[in-house]
Design a protein that fits this description.
This protein is mainly α and 116 residues long. The chain is built from 6 helices and no strands. Helix 2 packs parallel to helix 4 and helix 5 runs parallel beside helix 6. The longest helix has 22 residues. The chain is elongated.
Length: 116
């Protein structure tokens, strides 16, 4: 039983190590932003990868994250979040924040009309 647990633990850490080494950090950052995850998500990756001796390229991650925000911070995304009663979790850049918030408020009004 002890050996089985040891094999499982080693296998999991090898899998994490492989993922950390092979990650396209720019693409990971972009997908995180497009999914509405906070910018600080990279710290989770840093912690996990550091545990297995691999460094995260934070510069690439944040560059991808900025690209992803351009796709996320739209009127349509804001509207969908508001319409579904979802909280805001991402701070959009100044250039797109106003339009994003207009969509969010519009969707939120409809959500409140339907649900209250």
């Amino acid at each position: 039983m002890k050996y089985l647990l040891l094999i499982l633990l080693v296998g999991c850490s090898m899998n994490v190590k492989k993922k950390c080494r092979q990650a396209d950090w720019r693409a990971v950052g972009e997908m995180d932003a497009r999914s509405g995850l906070k910018r600080s998500q990279y710290r989770t990756y840093q912690d996990k990868c550091h545990e297995v001796g691999v460094d995260v390229d934070t510069r690439l991650y944040l560059s991808g994250y900025e690209q992803g925000l351009k796709m996320y911070c739209t009127y349509e995304t804001g509207y969908e979040l508001g319409l579904n009663g979802k909280p805001l979790s991402v701070k959009c850049p100044d250039g797109s924040a106003k339009n994003f918030m207009r969509g969010y408020k519009s969707g939120k009004r409809l959500y409140q009309t339907r649900n209250y």
